[in-house]
Design brief:
Elements (H helix, E strand, L loop, with lengths): L1 H67 L1 H6 L2 H8 L4 H18 L3 E6 L4 E4 L17 H7 L4 E6 L6 E11 L2 E10 L2 H7 L5 E5 L5 E4 L7 E2 L5 H9 L9 E2 L2 E6 L4 E6 L7 E8 L4 E8 L1 H127 L3 H29 L7 E4 H18 L3 E5 L6 E4 L1 H19 L6 E9 L2 E8 L29 H11 L3 E6 L5 E8 L9 H6 L1
Parallel strand pairs: 8-9, 15-17
Antiparallel strand pairs: 1-2, 1-5, 3-4, 4-5, 6-7, 6-13, 10-11, 11-12, 12-13, 14-16, 17-18, 18-20, 19-20
Helix pairs in contact: 1-8, 8-9, 10-11, 11-12
Bound molecules: adenosine-5'-diphosphate.
């Protein structure tokens, strides 16, 4: 029990430790994956943004370059030079205005105008519009000042009259006498902004002060990326570059510097997603072009990677645990099967041992039985022999009597015959000799009886004549019957009856039964014994009745037991009936005892009738 507890505690601890390790590993993996995928996504985004920015800048430069040369070209025109020399020439003013208007239209510019050396606009393409530039002074504009210095002036500003954002190119108009004025072309970049608005990236072009003046996002316009000093704001506002527009700030804060040109920034609101900001300079214009790409795509990329990593990790962990569990279950099953096998083997062993011992016991018992059987058989043979000897003993007095009498008679007849011969009385001698012959015949009969009795049994069942058996038995018991003056009644069918039997043993049985009957009737004043033979249903029935006292009811069950006797020691051993019973049993017959109505005993012997075969009738013949 304790061992189990410690074991389960230990495995729980191992499981907890394993879970902790797995958890830590997952965190580490997610962190790594997050880092890598962010790096990768940022690099991708950076590349894309760089590409877009390059396009944007190229596009913007292209747009500007389209007009860059135009003021220089116009400045060479004598119309302009002449007019600057004679500004009051009314004739040529209209022609000049019309010329500028045409040029403006053809170039698709916003405005084209001519300024004198004091900064006054003296001719303009919009001379017919509601608010023409003519008569207005733009001397404060840097492009004019640059042109008056003999350079190509460039400037971006909100038109003070049109209130439209424009880019100005100004070029000095000069002749040998020097710079007479400046010709200016203003272009609008609204259309350009419009065409870039459809992209998901945002663009912002800042002036050297960091103020956005071109942007795909309207609300960013006129805002600085970073907070500006008040002095700078004042300066910008004083320059009227952006008219009366308030200069605000986007308040861009840097979060990560990826490269010199690339930063991760937040645009004014930490709640909004960060942006990747790339910068590219346009030195000729003194501008910086910024592209802002939302990191939303990076974040979703990172999120996707984290999700995939988690799923893959969970799947691996699940598989790992599944295989561990499976191998544990397999081991468990193996253990269980081994145990079951062991138990089974043990049981088989036990059973085999049981069987073996039972077998040994059985063999021993069989051996014992065999020995007992042998002993029994021997004992039985001995008993039969003993019974024979007993019968012989019983007979001996009779035999003595039977033999001594004729012997004595023979002696006296022989003496008589000799005497008669001596006296030559041949007839008398002959009569005496005849008597001797008769007596020897009688003695031969007695000896034949003894011979029959001592003959060894074959134990084999053969067809025997019942009459012959009865005759033989009678020869043995005859003297007894005669001595005791017992009436013997023999009721036998006229035709001979054949049974399956061992002749000698059957004689033995009959001798036993008749001898018992003789003993039973001894005390009766009138003594009779009756032997009845009949056949029925394939059986021969031999019944021996007497008029003795019969068998006591309580003895009926025991009389066939060996050594059961009611007689005195010198008269009976109690073996006769038990031997007879065995003998009859061996001949497949039955022997039963009862009392008949007149009171005496009746013994019934049933034997199988033999199927008659002449060749087998030899035994009865032999006896005779
Ligand atoms: P034994 O004759 O030596 O006693 P048996 O086995 O032949 O042995 O007989 C057993 C007993 O059966 C006898 O002692 C006797 O009591 C009884 N018995 C046998 N035959 C008769 C009979 N015809 N009438 C009465 N009793 C008998």
């Amino acid at each position: 029990m304790d061992k189990n507890n410690t074991h389960s505690k230990r495995s729980r601890m191992i499981q907890q430790l394993l879970s902790l390790v797995m958890g830590l590993l997952l965190i580490f993996l997610l962190w790594q994956t997050g880092h890598w995928s962010r790096q990768l996504a940022l690099e991708n985004l950076q590349q894309q943004s760089q590409h877009q920015l390059r396009l944007f800048v190229a596009n913007l430069q292209g747009e500007l370059q389209k007009y860059e040369f135009l003021p220089e070209l116009l400045a060479t025109n004598s119309l302009l030079i002449n007019f600057l020399h004679n500004p009051n020439d009314v004739k040529s003013i209209n022609a000049l205005n019309r010329y500028l208007e045409t040029i403006n239209e053809v170039a698709n510019a916003s405005d084209t105008y001519l300024m004198n050396a004091e900064g006054w606009t003296i001719a303009a393409s919009n001379w017919l519009s509601e608010r023409p530039f003519i008569g207005r002074n733009f001397a404060y504009r840097p492009y004019f000042q640059e042109a008056m210095q003999g350079k190509l002036g460039r400037y971006f500003a909100l038109g003070s009259t049109s209130n439209k954002r424009g880019y100005y190119f100004a070029y000095p108009v000069k002749d040998d006498s020097g710079i007479l004025g400046a010709v200016v072309i203003k272009i609008e970049l609204q259309g350009f902004e419009q065409s870039w608005r459809e992209l998901k990236e945002e663009f912002a072009v800042t002036d050297p002060d960091g103020v956005i003046f071109i942007s795909t996002k309207d609300e960013w316009r006129y805002k600085s990326l970073y907070p500006l000093d008040q002095a700078v704001i004042n300066r910008v506002q004083d320059s009227k570059r952006y008219g009366k527009a308030e200069i605000g700030t986007l308040n861009v804060s840097q979060k990560d510097q990826l490269t010199e040109q690339a930063k991760v920034v937040n645009i004014g609101d930490p709640r909004q997603s960060d942006h990747l900001m790339l910068v590219r300079e346009m030195p000729e214009a003194g501008w910086k072009v910024h592209i802002f790409s939302s990191l939303g795509v990076v974040n979703s990329q990172v999120l996707k990677s984290l999700l995939i990593t988690t799923i893959v990790y969970v799947a691996i962990v699940f598989l790992f645990f599944y295989f561990i569990q499976r191998s544990r279950r397999l081991k468990e099953r193996e253990r269980y099967e081994k145990r079951a096998k062991r138990v089974l083997e043990q049981r088989v062993k036990e059973r085999t041992a049981d069987l073996t011992s039972a077998n040994i016991r059985l063999l021993r018992e069989i051996e014992e039985h065999r020995r007992t059987d042998e002993t029994l058989r021997k004992t039985q043979d001995e008993l039969i022999q003993a019974a024979k000897m007993a019968a012989l003993g019983q007979l001996s007095s009779g035999i003595n009597h039977e033999l001594n009498q004729p012997l004595a008679a023979i002696r006296s007849y022989a003496d008589n015959a000799r005497a008669y011969l001596v006296r030559d009385r041949k007839d008398d001698a002959s009569w005496n000799l005849e008597q001797i012959a008769e007596l020897t015949e009688r003695m031969a009969t007695i000896s034949r009886q003894l011979k029959v009795f001592s003959r060894k049994t074959t134990g084999q069942l053969v067809t025997v004549s019942l009459q012959a058996v009865i005759d033989n038995a009678m020869k043995i018991v005859g003297p007894q019957l005669k001595d005791t003056e017992t009436d013997f009644r023999r009721i036998v069918p006229a035709d001979d009856i054949y049974v399956q039997a061992d002749m000698i043993q059957l004689e033995q049985v009959l001798v036993n039964l008749i001898t018992n009957a003789v003993h039973a009737v001894e005390q009766q004043s009138e003594r009779w014994i009756q032997l009845m033979v009949s056949t029925d249903n394939g059986k021969a029935s031999i019944q021996i009745l007497d008029n003795g006292p019969g068998i006591a009811f309580e003895n009926l069950d025991q009389i066939f037991d060996p050594f059961f006797t009611t007689k005195s020691e010198d008269r009976g051993l109690g073996l006769g009936l038990s031997i007879s019973y065995r003998i009859v049993e061996m001949m497949h017959g039955t022997l039963t005892a009862d009392n008949h109505d007149s009171g005496g005993a009746v013994f019934t012997l049933l034997l199988d009738l033999a199927v008659l075969d002449e060749n087998k009738l030899t035994q009865s013949a032999m006896i005779e």
